[in-house]
Amino acid sequence: MKKVIAIDGPSGAGKSTIAKLVAKELNYAYLDTGALYRAVAMGLVRLGMNELSTEDQLLPALKKIKVEFRDGLVLLNGKDVSQEIRSPEAGHYASVFSAKRPVREHLLNIQRDAALYSDLVAEGRDMTTVVFPDAYKKFYLDASVEERSVRRTLELISRGFEVNGDRIRLEIMERDARDSGRDIAPLKKADDAHLLDSSGLSIDEVFLKILAIINEDAHAR
């Protein structure tokens, strides 16, 4: 396996933006695992799955779903769904289905295989604890619920979605509870991960803090 910089954290903490910047700066590949889960969720919904679907129902449905992350695009059964998966519905079902063992097992090797051929910056919910527990560098990126709600609201508006700020805040709190409370690969900070709270910080400030940590540790070796 090549070098992996793994970044975990809750929805809206800025993981995707920071991961892309770090990957570009270091000339690493970038893996958006949240996008993979959103694509699988979209595929499952299209096959009639929902919150009440059992593992026995999910297993045959997953066999009909092929998700790829290629050249920055997310493909669902060969079709580009990069924009569609950014909807609030896709985010909701990604959180719901990610708590199901068959879904996590379906995507585990797909994620790990991404690090076989190139150095990687991977971000998600369990990159540092489950997918890449031996990552070269680990980070847990967090921010207050209030700040994450504002960021998510502005992001959705920029994508053309009609949103309710209070509803977004409630959805983020519900998702935090699901992600942290699930039995399988819950969202949590790895013991050896660097904790960064991005509340009140600009993207550039967070980016520079992460680079400084990476460079300091590299020089210390």
Write down the CATH topology: Rossmann fold
Strand order of the largest sheet: 2-6-1-7-8
In terms of DSSP E residues, the strand content is 15-25%
Output the CATH homologous superfamily: P-loop containing nucleotide triphosphate hydrolases
- Number of H/I helices: 9
Largest β sheet strand count, sense and barrel closure: 5 strands, parallel
CATH architecture: 3-Layer(aba) Sandwich
The CATH class assignment is: Alpha Beta
Structural class: alpha/beta
| C-alpha Rg (nearest Å) | 17 Å
Order of helices and strands: EHEHHEEEHHEHEHHEH
How far from one another are the termini?
20 Å
For the secondary structure, the number of strands is: 8
- Helicity range of the residues? 40-55%
What attributes does this structure have?
5-stranded parallel β-sheet; alpha/beta; single chain; 221 residues; Rossmann fold
Structure write-up:
With 221 residues, this protein is α/β, with parallel strands linked by helices. The protein has a single domain, classed as P-loop containing nucleotide triphosphate hydrolases (Rossmann fold, 3-Layer(aba) Sandwich), CATH 3.40.50.300. 50% of the residues lie in helices and 15% in strands. The protein contains 9 helices and 8 strands. The protein has helices at 15-26, 33-46, 55-62, 88-97, 101-113, 127-131, 145-158, 165-181, 203-220, and strands at 4-8, 29-32, 67-70, 73-76, 79-80, 120-124, 137-142, 194-197. The strands form 2 sheets. It has a 5-stranded parallel beta sheet with strand order 2-6-1-7-8. It is globular, with a radius of gyration of 17 Å. The two termini are 20 Å apart.
